[in-house]
Amino acid sequence: MSLVESFRDTLRAAHAKGTPLSIRGGGSKSFYGRPATGSEFSVAEYTGIIDYSPTELVISAHAGTPLSELEAALANENQMLPFEPPHFGPGATLGGTIACGFSGPRRPYAGAARDHVLGITCLNGRGEALRFGGQVMKNVAGYDISRTLTGSLGTLAVMLDITIKVLPRPETERTLSREMTSEQALQLLNRWAGQPLPLSAGCYFDGRLMVRLSGFEQGVRAAAEQLGGDEPDAAGGFWEDLREHRLPFFQDDRPLWRLSVPPAAALPALEGEELIDWGGAQRWLRTEQPATTLREATAGAGGHATRFRGGDRDDVFHPLDPALKALHQRLKASFDPAGILNPGRMYSEF
């Protein structure tokens, strides 16, 4: 019996009995979301690159494929995953990355994880095989279910095969650093975002604005001369440490919040220590302040707040408004009518 047949049988039996399943890959992102419940359903052994066409900039792999294996294959062809996903541990898999929808510092300039997912083959809560999208963008028409599955934390389906659009690695990269206030940094990041500059990352932390330029040597050099600033030593390591949460800012016992807001948003003063990423669109905050305070502040700025690590794991995601909640519930009922797939991982109701 193949692994997929085994997965299908397990799902069908669980559906018939109403047995909850906790879907797991490498476990590197198991800290995220509400606590997992149910019997463990592992896809970690379902590994391997299915197809890779460097000239077409497309790669397909099984969900359990280690992210490091995928990135190594791309690096051999001088290509990369454009959304620069964090690993958060050696066990990181492609399926877990897409299920969480995580993207790294390059996200506002190259797109999010869901923007590069071309197709997904999966099993729904009944054990039925479904396929969405394809290997080129023109295959995506109507309601793009592949994007819906991205970031769904395994609550809708068990991902089997995933097709991703990749990009060539930039010819060169340079990091510039300047000392300033957070207000000045946000003003500059938003001004530069509207200019034809080869920006690929922008972060403010500990009194300094850090920006990364990526592209062809001539364009990067011209942009660096235009923007000015110092070039820190080992700057490439900074962006990797930021992506993997290895910077000193993240080594703290206080709950870590991710505030997603419009890049130019001015948030009210909040207690705690802040790191600004994604050119201003993602604000990391270490704080003991109540969830209601943070969510009211971000909602007032047109965003939402997620308790990323630590604190009360029963209260992780921003509450849904009634219309959006109803949509989530209809999707859950359609994909997983018995409610067996990662129940309660996102919200207690589904």
Description:
The protein starts with a helix and ends in a 15-residue tail after the last helix. The strands form 5 sheets. The protein has a 5-stranded antiparallel sheet with strand order 3-4-8-6-7. Strands 14-15-13-16 form a 4-stranded antiparallel sheet. The protein has helices at residues 3-17, 67-76, 94-100, 107-110, 145-149, 182-193, 217-227, 235-243, 291-300, 322-335; strands at residues 21-24, 39-42, 49-53, 58-62, 79-80, 117-123, 129-133, 158-165, 167-168, 172-179, 199-205, 208-215, 256-260, 273-277, 282-286, 304-309. It is an alpha+beta fold and 350 residues long. The chain is built from 10 helices and 16 strands. Strand 3 and strand 4 form a beta hairpin. The chain is globular. It has 2 domains: 3-168, Uridine Diphospho-n-acetylenolpyruvylglucosamine Reductase, domain 3, CATH 3.30.465; 172-309.
Which descriptors would you attach to this protein?
350 residues; alpha+beta; Uridine Diphospho-n-acetylenolpyruvylglucosamine Reductase, domain 3; 2 domains; 5-stranded antiparallel beta sheet; 4-stranded antiparallel beta sheet; 16 strands; 28% helix
